[in-house]
Amino acid sequence: METSFQLKEEEKKVEEFYSPPEKSFSAAFSLANNIRFTMGPVEVLKIGEISTTSLNIRREVQLGFAVRTALLTLWGAVAEQPLIAVGQTYKVMCIRATNDFNCQRSYNSTMSTKFEPVSVEEEDVEALLHFEGVVNSVSFENKLVEVGEGLLTVSNAHLGELYPPQSVQCWTIH
Predict the structure, then answer these.
(1) Which domain holds residue 154?
(2) Residues 143, 117: one domain?
(3) pLDDT tens digits for range 46-97
(4) Same domain membership, residue 151 and residue 67
(5) Which residues touch 93 (CB under 8 Å, ≥6 apart)?
(6) How far apart are CA 83 and CA 29, in angstroms?
């Protein structure tokens, strides 16, 4: 008995809304603002205190993976009941990329943000950090490296390690 079926276009949109595409911590750094996605694995490094304003409640959570960090701002009911612990690893579902803040990537929660605990072995971490490919271009001004068809964001320190200042020749094309 055949039980496969195709989702209608509207059903696909609803499914993508509640189960957005999953991105690794490093891939999420190059997403455009307001893209809704799931990120993981990430480690919770610090959980801030609740801040209450006349309009809303928020809490900042410092996330990390390997040597990178990012700031996740939890809003409303998600901020009141984060149900997460420092030092634990999670997949964070249904968040949005937002502007960088204090030179680190930032994200906002949505009403449907959830934290799903995951276990990560050391071999898995090394596999996620390793990438191969040909560097097509580098933007020192925007701190972007184009590898294959993807853009990766890097810090000034990483650019300095990858491309020491004395080894780089810059050309301007007019």
Answers:
(1) 130-167
(2) no
(3) 999 999 988 899 999 999 887 788 999 999 999 988 789 999 999 999 999 9
(4) no
(5) 19, 20, 38, 112, 113, 114, 115, 116
(6) 25
